[in-house]
Write a structure and sequence with these properties.
The protein is built from three helices and 14 strands. With 251 residues, the protein is mainly beta.
Length: 251
């Protein structure tokens, strides 16, 4: 399906509290005459993980850190940092027609100082033994539209806690589009990612750690409240690539 028919996707979620998702970043992408909003995940003091379909072709990006209300310039703890095009690394095999390898990295121009509102998520351990996470409860968050009726992104950060769907079930919705490098969430109860959440985190919490296992990739153009699975780029499939580009690995 062409990208225009797929939508980036948090509907019917809860409002996030300050510091609840300290790894969440907002990305205001500059495409010349147009702006585009996406999410991302802080994975170190210099690097952000997001989706290729967000950053591909962007002239630059303003990164929002520690934010809940992205429209509040004076929000306590919120920081905004501009990153130029040369610091955006899009996966070499990104295919916008097939939505394959929908992953990219953004290198911050300066080291980020961590505090209670800004903390990185951790990558899954590199050990060759990767969970599918099927049936596990996971967290997705973002400023995407909070309903199909909404005409713009939500100014406030929202989140959902949902189960990872079986790959075989997900494939029945998106015939021919789902491969092993993707991970799907169930969106029963109309809880889903929506436009503006693209690139944002899918996190599995274990032993007090926020493990980033997905980056929001696509949903369905019918709308975010239709119960179709939300599809994410599967981070465990790209740990070697992330290490090669950024030097970051959890060993």
């Amino acid at each position: 399906m062409p990208l225009a028919e797929l939508e980036g996707r948090i509907t019917n979620g809860e409002l996030a509290q300050p510091g609840q998702f300290p790894y969440q970043v907002g990305l205001s992408l500059d495409f010349g005459d147009m702006g585009f909003w996406c999410g991302g995940t802080l994975i170190s003091d210099r690097w952000i993980l997001t989706a290729a379909h967000c950053t591909d072709g962007a002239d630059g990006v303003t990164v929002y850190l520690g934010a809940i209300d992205v429209r509040n310039d004076n929000e306590k703890g919120q920081q905004r940092i501009y990153v130029s095009k040369r610091n955006i690394v899009v996966h070499e095999a990104w295919n916008p027609d097939l939505l394959r390898n929908d992953i990219s990295l953004i290198k911050m121009p300066v080291s980020i100082e961590f505090n209670e509102r800004i903390q990185p998520a951790v990558l899954p351990k590199m050990n060759g033994q990767y969970s599918t996470y099927e049936g596990d409860m996971v967290w997705a968050s973002g400023w995407g539209r909070d309903s199909d009726a909404a005409t713009s992104i939500s100014p406030l950060l929202r989140y959902i806690e949902v189960p990872v769907m079986k790959q075989s079930t997900c494939k029945t919705y998106y015939l021919g589009s789902i491969n092993e490098n993707m991970i799907c969430i169930s969106t029963k109860g109309k809880k889903s990612t929506c436009n503006g959440d693209s690139g944002g985190p899918l996190v599995y919490k274990q032993n007090g750690e926020n493990i980033v296992i997905g980056a929001t990739s696509f949903g369905i153009a019918l709308g975010c409240e239709k119960g179709w699975p939300g599809v994410f780029t599967r981070v465990t499939s790209y740990l070697d690539w992330i290490e090669e580009k950024s030097g970051i690995a959890n060993k």
